[in-house]
Amino acid sequence: MSPASVAVGGASRPRPSLRWLVAVGRALAPHPTLWPTAIAQLRRLAPRGWWRRPPYLPVPASDYLAFRSQTMYGDAARLPEPADVVTFVHWCRAFPRVPRTGGVLRTHRAIAPKPPR
Description:
117 residues; alpha+beta; two-stranded antiparallel sheet; 4 helices
């Protein structure tokens, strides 16, 4: 088990540290156009009450990081590489905004069944 992971329920999960967050910040520093998107993603992915639990940083929950690491690297205990975080933020910035109406994502017009005659 790496020092940046913690065993939870018998499985090792990534545990972000200040060192990892600084490395991600350094990777994002040369890309000022990504800063607003990175901050928005950090706010979206940080669990509620993050300031009450170690590591006392607004980083994604370990369950989320474990899932993303498993699907990306094949290892749930591995933290994302800073360069991969930059790629993710680029993707988030480029992803087309989909209008939301009434809290429901609407990408196409629903087809209602015809009423009986």
